[in-house]
Amino acid sequence: MDRLSTDGILAHAAVVYGYFPAVSEGNDIVVLTEPKPDAPVRYRFHFPRQQRGRFLCIADFIRSRELAAERGEVDVLPFQLVTMGQPIADFANELFASNAYRDYLEVHGIGVQLTEALAEYWHRRIREELKFSGDRAMAAEDPEAKEDYFKLGYRGARFAFGYGACPDLEDRAKMMALLEPERIGVTLSEELQLHPEQSTDAFVLHHPEAKYFNV
Q1: What is its EC class (predicted)?
Q2: C-beta of residue 28 within 8 angstroms of C-beta of residue 46
Q3: Where on the phi/psi map is residue 79: left (φ > 0), alpha (ψ -120 to 50), or beta?
């Protein structure tokens, strides 16, 4: 376990993120070429709608193009991608190849947890940077108690393609084109999986009613 720190294995963690102008059109979220209500579509993301219950769709939590035109202001859609880098995966594979299965499981588990922790940390960073009217940060609504973070007590939510309300994993390729994570060493396989393995991506919805749901 000492090698994780002494060999600099954890020094390869990296993040790429960005804020993109967006509006909704029906069940779609469209990322625009510029922050104007009548701007052309850069990328379109389609989301399914619930067929029962509240009939929710991810696009419901982004300002519609019509409302954006009325107010003269589009919405914003943050994307983020974090990675622990290739060395920790190489170290885990080295342990597995040498039949050190217990150490392999521990290192692999640490890598998974560190990746998720970095994603959560950067989600917090986005909430700090994203400001509403009156220069009030989204993070101003974060809970005081640490345990409430585990209950998703902050405003909005972080969503990943391939799960729950956004099951289309092919949309990950569009996100990759927006973020250009190759500059931090992350690529997308033909199977739409991120490499290095200990990497994760997401988009953030700031709407106060945006919480996890399934379709």
Answers
A1: transferase
A2: yes
A3: beta
Range with the largest mean pLDDT of 17-26, 86-95, 127-136 = 17-26
Question: Cα-atom radius of gyration of the chain, to the nearest Å?
Answer: 19
Q: What are the CA-CA distances from residue 71 to residues 28, 34, 35, 58, 63 (Å)?
A: 20, 16, 13, 21, 10
Domain that holds residue 112: 3-19+78-205
3-state per-residue secondary structure call for 193-206? CEECCCEEEEEEEC
67: in domain: no
The answer to the question of residue 180 being in a domain is: yes
Any idea what DSSP says for residue 22? Answer: E
CATH number at 164 reads 3.40.109.40
**Which CA distances in Å does 20 have to 4, 38, 77, 192?**
35, 15, 5, 22
Number of domains within the chain: 1
Digit-coded pLDDT (tens) for 147-198: 888 878 899 999 999 988 999 999 999 999 999 999 999 999 999 999 999 9
Q: What is the pLDDT of residue 6?
A: 67
